[in-house]
Amino acid sequence: VDAGQPLASFSDFAKEYVDEALCSRLLEKHGGDVQRSIGQLRKILAWRESNKDLLTKRQCRRTWDLRVIGADQARRPMLYCCFQSQTEAVGRGSVEQFVVNTLAAIDNMPPGVETATHIWDMHGMKWHLNLNPAGLLGVVDAIEGYFVGRLHKMVIIEMPGFARFLKEAVWPLLPARTKQKVLFMSYDEAAAHMRRECDAKTAERVLGAMARNRDPQVSSEDLRRSCMSVNPQGEEVPVFM
After folding, report:
1. Which residues of 39-62 are buried (b: 16+ CB within 10 A; e: fewer)?
2. Distance between CA 5 and CA 62 in Å, rounded?
3. Cβ–Cβ under 8 Å, residues 145 and 44
4. Model-level pTM greater than 0.85?
5. How many angstroms separate the CA atoms of 200 and 71, rounded?
6. Contact 68, 230 (CB under 8 A)
7. pLDDT per residue over 114-168, tens digit each?
8. Is 49:10 a contact under the CB 8 Å cutoff?
9. What is the pLDDT of residues 53-81, one digit of tens each?
10. Do 230 and 108 contact (CB within 8 A), yes or no?
């Protein structure tokens, strides 16, 4: 990105994103292939330039309850959402919310930590809001592109049978390394996983959210009021203001 180099024409804002850690993640993804890494870096910088407002203002519509819910025992941030909370079809708004919340997770990362775990609880998933895989592909593009190398695990809980066509649309596009990070779990398997992998507070938050989302006595308004995100200071703040 320096003067005279192939990517020098990008704006200062775009080039601010380039550091040794990003370059290392790109090289790791592409098996040390410098030219392929440069090619993807070019796409990342172009995306950053075209999404400056989103990245700087971090403002987006809340179309589901995605948030940073805590950290695992290695202090990697964990993000949680339940598809029961989804209010509109997966599309650009969902991708923007994914980007904003992933940036929040990065803010929470202590020195030496570069990855986060995403927990997608598919209980209550609405089929009519998830007929088009394009939005999901946009999230995958963010994971494999701008946030390359930032995924520790993707935990998918209780994926309904009708959603298998989404997996069939996306799965062939995932690199083998990413496929190994995706875990499909039942409710009980996920609960055991959280108790084993998370710190005590995060396990309590995730298990509590999973239980509330399945309790017919809890209203959607109560769910929104109980939805909290964890900031870099470890404080819980309301997601829906």
Report:
1. ebbeebbebbeeeeebbeeeebeb
2. 40
3. yes
4. yes
5. 9
6. yes
7. 999 999 999 999 999 998 888 899 999 999 999 999 999 999 999 999 999 999 9
8. yes
9. 999 999 998 889 999 999 999 999 999 99
10. yes
